[in-house]
Amino acid sequence: MSGAALSKGPIFFGPFLVTSQVCGRHLFFSLTPFLVRMSPLSFLVFYITPLSFALVNLKPILPGHVLVSPRRCVPRVADLTPAETVDLFLTVRRIGRMVERVFGASSLNIAIQDGLDAGQSVPHVHAHLIPRRGADLDARGGTDAIYSMLDGDEGDLGRIHREMESEEKRATKMTPSNHRRSGFPAVDNDRRVARSEGEMTHEAEMLAREMEKEPED
Amino acid sequence: MSGAALSKGPIFFGPFLVTSQVCGRHLFFSLTPFLVRMSPLSFLVFYITPLSFALVNLKPILPGHVLVSPRRCVPRVADLTPAETVDLFLTVRRIGRMVERVFGASSLNIAIQDGLDAGQSVPHVHAHLIPRRGADLDARGGTDAIYSMLDGDEGDLGRIHREMESEEKRATKMTPSNHRRSGFPAVDNDRRVARSEGEMTHEAEMLAREMEKEPED
């Protein structure tokens, strides 16, 4: 499924408006101040198809950790239409290939917390894609330690909002380390470093360009 | 994608032959001795579509934990054709609905260890589907403790073989507890109780019947 033929219109992740306007395969990142006000989180989104979209993380578990969601805001995979299911997972496969290539990985974790009792935080279907490399978590408990890190921070856009506001207040005294990804983040979410809007925007723009290079199916 | 129109032919999970003959939507469970010899693990499989199949587990992490695989034996999601990807995930969605209903669950974990460095044990794409209920893992570390249990036991059919041979040797002194599912299994795989062939056959037959009740998309 190509991302080329896009319908226009807003996209929400849970209750949060994440896009205002789309063009071609990816977003206009130079949104007008009006649109930015309407959609303060649009910088997170790097790819949109007719029925799905993909966004970067505030606190990636490992470099390249991204999310893929259906455009229609429904909580459960069983709520998706067959067409939405097909589009979502073809998008998961395509973005998975891309992040694995771009982040120099050799494997991929794909995980969906489908419903509250499975650990879902935002009631909007989302697949975690996490590029993996050999021994990347040896110091943190081994290969499968990745899963204990999947505890809901991903979609907490309310927290992203709040943390961004705090970041803005600190902006005048920002040090370079605030802008740099911190290697492999700690297991505990609270110890993972929240990235700046600038860093996330840069990554989303880079991933949007990389998706242009990704061959069609 | 319906399971009704099936091509005949053997199906492998990794190097292991898991089916010999199919009819309608599910297997003939009354295989001839010859076919049983050809396919000693066929009792694990409860659903087959033109491009995918589903099987029960020797040591389910929680009741209803099943696997869904493409019929073609390839290690990575990126190796699948678009048609295989579509069939696999429509099958995941359909079987997810069924196990959630049958096991009285309210949510579902869906996880793919896509490649060796993501924790994959058998080099054949497989999605874990694990029905979840509120507080089902509170005594074992909380909702997300499920992931630490996903450490490769699922597809170790070589181990299934070996354990079944041991079970057979103990068959004459089998107690009822060997045949009963042990509530919520321990976190450590080695403490999880291997189920008997009889129990797995019974579950696979039950799930095959339940898939007959599952509405088409």
The largest interface is: A-B, 44 and 44 residues
Distance between the termini of chain A: 7 Å
In terms of DSSP E residues, the strand content of chain A is: 15-25%
- Our count of helices of chain A gives 5
Class of the domain at 12-21 and 39-160 and 194-212 in chain A, according to the CATH hierarchy?
Alpha Beta
Secondary structure tally: strands of chain A: 9
What quaternary form is this? homodimer
Please, what is the average pLDDT of chain A?
74
Question: What radius of gyration of chain A results from the CA coordinates?
Answer: 16 Å
Briefly note the CATH topology name of the domain at 12-21 and 39-160 and 194-212 in chain A: HIT family, subunit A
Low-confidence stretches of chain A: 1-7, 21-38, 171-190
State the strand order across the main sheet of chain A. Answer: 5-6-7-9-8
Largest sheet of chain A: 5 strands, antiparallel
SSE string of chain A: EEEEHEEEHEEHHH
The CATH superfamily of the domain at 12-21 and 39-160 and 194-212 in chain A bears the name: HIT-like
